[in-house]
Amino acid sequence: EPEVTQTPSHQVTQMGQEVILRCVPISNHLYFYWYRQILGQKVEFLVSFYNNEISEKSEIFDDQFSVERPDGSNFTLKIRSTKLEDSAMYFCASSGSRGGTGELFFGEGSRLTVL
Amino acid sequence: RKEVEQDPGPFNVPEGATVAFNCTYSNSASQSFFWYRQDCRKEPKLLMSVYSSGNEDGRFTAQLNRASQYISLLIRDSKLSDSATYLCVVRPQTGGFKTIFGAGTRLFVKA
Predict the structure, then answer these.
(1) Is the Cβ–Cβ distance between A45 and B87 less than 8 Å?
(2) What is the pLDDT of residues A25-61, one digit of tens each?
(3) Are B48 and A114 in contact (CB under 8 A)?
(4) Whose C-alpha in B17, B68, B103, B109 is 20 to 30 A from the C-alpha of A63?
(5) Chain B contacts of A31, Cβ < 8 Å?
(6) Chain-centre distance of CA B98, in angstroms?
């Protein structure tokens, strides 16, 4: 069964450093997403990406964050100048269809710890 | 009012029990509704979509009441393996991309 894969599974970084989280969405999907879940809190939408551009973003997704699909398979989330409060699980998801009942398929997540 | 609000948990039930989760949403124009399941420290996984006419998948039944902006999930004959957090998920109409998760309701099924 096709799946979304994410790397790394866990990254520890020092405050102020840049991190890049990588995702390989399901190959025939068209829509890509990043979500964040701080430990013990709810899953929060960060950004959606379609047709090589951001289609929607939340207020969390400020200038510190950026996304890219550099090569047609990888989908990356870059966090510049990390802060302690960026520590969270970051989930990548993809879907095949825009609206309606399009199911989101999630990767296993990348746990980011900022020290 | 929160965009998606769920019953506070946790629910502690014995095996074989029937348990119901409720969810309300604030955006009356919302189009799509789902229940996801999340195991501890794992990714959310789709349990079932929720259709206007209500739908059933084995022991699970989902209902939608658009007038009341209310979604429910009923689990019959609970199994130990049903222990998880159940997430109510709503997709607003606006752009079709943003999907909003409720905070989740934790279920513990005990032998």
Answers:
(1) no
(2) 998 888 899 999 999 999 999 999 988 899 889 999 9
(3) no
(4) B103
(5) 97
(6) 17
| Cβ–Cβ below 8 Å for A45 and B45 | no
Q: What is the pLDDT of residues B44-61, one digit of tens each?
A: 999 999 988 889 999 999
End-to-end CA distance of chain B: 37
Tokens 């209500």, located at residue: B54
Question: Measured over all CA atoms, what is the biggest interatomic distance in chain A, rounded to whole angstroms?
Answer: 41
Q: Does B42 touch chain A (CB under 8 A)?
A: yes
List b or e across A63-85, with b for residues whose CB sees 16 or more CB atoms inside 10 angstroms: eebebebeeeeebbbebeebeee
Could you say which of B44, B49, B96 has the minimum Cβ distance to residue A99? B96
A43, A44, A99: residue with CB nearest B31: A99
